Amino acid sequence: MKNDTFDRRAFLKSAVAGSAAAVTATVALPQTAEAQQRPASPAPPPPNPGYIFLNLEEAAFVEAVVDHMVPADALSPKGTDLGLNVYIDRALAGGWGKGDRLYMQGPWKQGTPSQGYQLPLTPAELYRAGIKAANAHSVKTYGKTFDKITEAQRQEFLVAWQAGKVTFEAGPPARTFFATLYQNVMEGMFSDPIYGGNRDKAGWKMIGFPGVIAVHAQNVEKFRDKKYAPAPMGISDLS
Amino acid sequence: MATKLKEVDVVVVGLGWTGGILAKELAEAGLKVVALERGKMMSTAQDFGVPQVRDELRYVQRHELMQNAAKDTLTIRNNPTQDALPMRRLGSFLPGEGVGGSGIHWSGHTWRWTDMEFKVRSMYEERYGKAYIPNDMTIQDWGITYAELEPYYEKFERVAAVSGKAGNLRGVIQPGGNPFEAPRANEYALPALTPILSNVMFAEAAGKLGYHPFPRPSANASRPYTNPDGVRFGQCQYCGFCQRFGCEANAKGSPHHTVIPLAMKSPNFELRANSWVTKVIKDPAGKRVTGVTYTNVLNGEEFEQPATMVLLTAYAINNVHLMLLSGIGRAYDPVSQQGVIGKNYCYQTGAGATLFFEGRNFNPFMSAGGSSSTMDDFNTNWDFDRSKHGFIGGYTIGAGFNTSLPIGNRPVPRGTPSWGKEWKAATAKSYQTAMNIGGSGSVMANRYNYFDLDPTYRNAFGQPLMRMTFDYKENEHKMGRHASQMINDIAKSMNPTSFNTATARTEPWTVVPYQSTHNTGGTIMGTNPRQSALNKYLQSWDAHNLFVVGANVFPHNSSYNPTGPIGALAYWTADAIKNQYLKNPGPLVSA
Fold first, then answer.
1. DSSP-H helix ranges across A98-173
2. What pLDDT tens digit does each residue of chain A (239 aa) get?
3. Helix, strand, coil shares of chain B as percentages rounded to 5?
4. Reading across the β-sheet that carries B434-441, which strands appear in turn?
5. Quick one: closest CA in B to A205, which residue?
6. Which of A70, A195, A228 faces B363 most closely, judged by CB atoms?
7. B518 assigned to active site
8. CA distance A134 to chain B (A)
9. Is the CB of residue B294 less than 8 Å from the CB of residue B2?
10. What domain count does chain B have?
11. In the A/B pair of chains, how many CB contacts fall below 8 A?
């Protein structure tokens, strides 16, 4: 497991960009009932996404986190196969990561917990500083960066981190970075696939969320206390 | 140097429900009306089409339709001893921005607040004695009555396509409706929404316990509808993308497809979007206002728009902010308790339980904004004896789903890990088999909950940010404890596989996470200028040609959503202007 990310990246680097030729014709109509009954086609192999924002250390860290938080099992493929790393990279490279809609005027003070986010950092800057600090903590505790430690060590680290038992010396507040990172993992898992995560709508399939098709005036009584499980549709399926 | 424009009869600042209603009514009455809206123009066809509108990340997490905190926000603190710091990212509440305002992204819950609110001090004093009201609880009567507002509630409900079931028609209690509501002259505009499973299960359980559940009234058209103005509504599709979203079907009552297009049909009306009002200009004699200054945010050009009347109809907080920035009326001081502008800021509180039922299918994605079965037994039920529990006010309890989308709403039993295989299994199992019971509680006014101007932080125009000082007080803690116990009792009676209990919140109010966009007070209505900023017609005591319309006029907050009385008061004010003020411009109530 611990070498997995490097193997995959080496593979991806050398892979022919065949996915560009893959058929991605737009679907203009909702699927027919017949089509919905067929099992969903298996996910295509993930295309090489490339990173816009994350550097090598950051990419390795984020890949390790998303694969640990979302391991492969019968319910879904693992985090990187769902594109959660891609989602996070694109979010950090885009307006949100650059502090769009974030009030960024000083003076800066730490404030009370009830005053919310008070850091002089955009989300992208928080990741940049936060990953460095988290890896420094990992090296200090386990002798290696987060992407190189064992599954059990990752679990121990994350549990302590979430519980507020990890502090980053002179870095951004560990709690704030954890909350942001965790929220972004969940966003990547359950947002529309158009943002790079939730690949093949696997996050939605896992819980039974039908996506953008939502015309239920006729269904609300018919399906009361009955399973309603069409193949989920995303924005690009209907565009 | 600002370009001075030609004087108009009326300038409307902010174009959501209240601005839209007043602009339409006054333009149709023959007045020249200019509306200034800081945000952009939006329309259902251009902006809220499927599939783009079905985007939880964009609209819920990233606040697409909301005020941009980078340009203007508030500073926040829990009490006057703290340093206020800016709310750097929106969280606890989400003011809308753009043509249609928060009326685009609301869920549609439309209530009729009753005399229990409008006569709050006199009714509690009469029943429980003067000593029952804590010294620092600055509740006061509003100066209006339910009977005065009743026709205006009806007017707004019909314009906004409110679906519901009457519980009290002209004093006769109606089966299936809310028996505690005040008498209505007529039924709702549309029949109640079709109940979803969680509504049915809650209603059955609450009924068995002797409570009185009813379908929550909501501006989600339960069938195709044409309102009295001839505006056509589609049928609500229970799409599950309501709160925070525009409605592609025009099934949600929103100003951008009702009153605003009607105002725009009038040659007397002009809309200027992207126009940020920075100040209301006072007449040197101080008895009137003469217009506003604003900036075109597309190019930075500054204007002065003279007007015979000024109507502040922005989001409640921004109305108060503009009053403070313009120096109209005396700013409130919590120490001396003198002054009125900024006084009695209130919010709401809540508690909730999550119930897990193995084997059931709640289909949370199949719900309208108003898919809730609700009970008022601890709210407008005046027979409920508060003295045993020591609080003032009340709370609704309801169950259902509203915009239960998967980034934000993935219930799991308490104690479930936050990631890994166990988390995945619990999430997969619970999404369709969990429901909530939630309470929404009132907040009574308190001497130390108020607005003023921040001494340090500035907005994009270099103006002081609004400073909000707020926390829940013992009254809210007591009510929260009672509400949690009642919610848990109902939950237990439903015999779920397991449930996450409701707990009273007693920790300080925080700016995260989202709680409620029901911010009230700051320029309150009342019976005299020493205690209130506005008279019963929402006319400034300090400048008779200035009206301030929105939840900022509420002297305290109830457990109900605010839009019902906001819409009704907008029509009430429009009538007062048309029928009284225009004939004899001056104070409509003598101070």
1. 123-142, 151-162
2. 333 333 333 333 333 222 332 323 233 333 333 334 444 455 555 567 799 999 999 999 999 999 999 999 999 999 999 999 999 999 999 999 999 999 999 999 999 999 999 999 999 999 999 999 999 999 999 999 999 999 999 999 999 999 999 999 888 999 999 999 999 999 999 999 999 999 999 999 999 999 998 789 999 999 999 999 899 999 999 98
3. 25, 25, 55
4. B214-215, B372-375, B395-400, B434-441, B349-356, B498-500
5. B428
6. A228
7. yes
8. 18
9. no
10. 1
11. 182
When CB atoms are compared, the residue of A118, A208, A234 closest to B85 is: A118
Contact A237 B91 (CB under 8 A): no
Give the DSSP H/E element, type plus range, for residue B464: strand B464-469
* Residues facing residue B232 across a β-bridge: B226
Residue B508 located in a structural domain: no
CB contact B416 to A (< 8 Å): no
Write out chain B residues lying below 8 Å of A207, CB-based.
406, 410, 427-428, 431-432
Output the domain CATH number for residue B12. Answer: 3.50.50.60
Q: Do B424 and A206 touch (CB under 8 A)?
A: yes
Chain A residues whose beta carbon lies within 8 Å of the beta carbon of residue B57 = 187, 191-192, 195
Answer whether A216 sits within 8 Å of B238, measured CB to CB. Answer: yes
User: Distance between CA atoms of B111 and B339, rounded to whole angstroms?
Assistant: 31
* Burial tier of A23 (Cβ tally within 10 Å: 0-12, 13-18, 19+): exposed
**Alpha carbon of B230: minimum distance to chain A alpha carbons (Å):** 23
The residue of chain A with its CA nearest to that of B52 is A235
Residue of chain B whose alpha carbon sits nearest to that of A197: B57
**CA-based nearest distance B73→chain A, Å:** 7
Q: Which two tokens stand for residue A210?
A: 């039908």
* Structure tokens that stand for B5 in this block: 């424009």
A186 contacts on B by Cβ (under 8 Å): 407, 410
Give 10-residue mean pLDDT values along chain B (591 residues): 96 98 98 98 96 97 97 98 98 97 98 98 98 98 98 98 98 98 98 98 98 98 98 98 98 98 98 98 94 98 98 98 98 97 97 98 97 98 97 98 96 98 98 97 98 98 98 98 98 98 95 96 98 98 98 98 98 98 97 84
Q: Which amino acid is at B270?
A: E
∠B196-B201-B206 over CA atoms, to 5°? 125
Mutate to test the interface with A, among B73, B347, B365 (most CBs of A within 10 A): B365
Name, in order, each residue with C-beta under 8 angstroms of B336's C-beta and a sequence gap of 6 or more.
Answer: none
Report the gap between the CA of A140 and the closest CA in chain B (Å): 24
CA–CA gap between residue B86 and residue B450 (Å, rounded): 16
Determine contact, residues B536/B528, Cβ cutoff 8 Å.
no
Residues of B in contact with A107 (CB under 8 A): 456
- C-beta of residue A91 within 8 angstroms of C-beta of residue B57: no
- Inter-chain contact B512–A216, Cβ cutoff 8 Å? no
Sign of CA dihedral B74, B325, B10, B579: positive
**Bond from prior residue into B364 cis (ω within 30 degrees of 0):** no
Encode pLDDT of B509-533 as tens digits.
999 999 999 999 999 999 999 999 9
Question: What is the dihedral sign for C-alpha B546, B548, B554, B555?
Answer: negative
For residue B96, the SS3 value is strand
In this structure, which amino acid lies at residue B109? H
Residue at B136 is within a domain: yes
| Binary contact (A211, B54; C-beta < 8 A) | yes
Catalytic residue among B256, B518, B544, B556: B518
Q: Does B547 touch chain A (CB under 8 A)?
A: no
Give residue B295's domain range: 1-68+98-160+253-346+516-591
> Do β-strands B168-169 and B85-86 pair in parallel, antiparallel, or remain unpaired?
unpaired
B224 domain residue, yes or no: no
Name the residue ranges covered by the structural domains of chain A.
1-6+45-101+115-207, 210-239
What residue type is B432 in one-letter code?
Q
Residue B242 maps to a domain? no
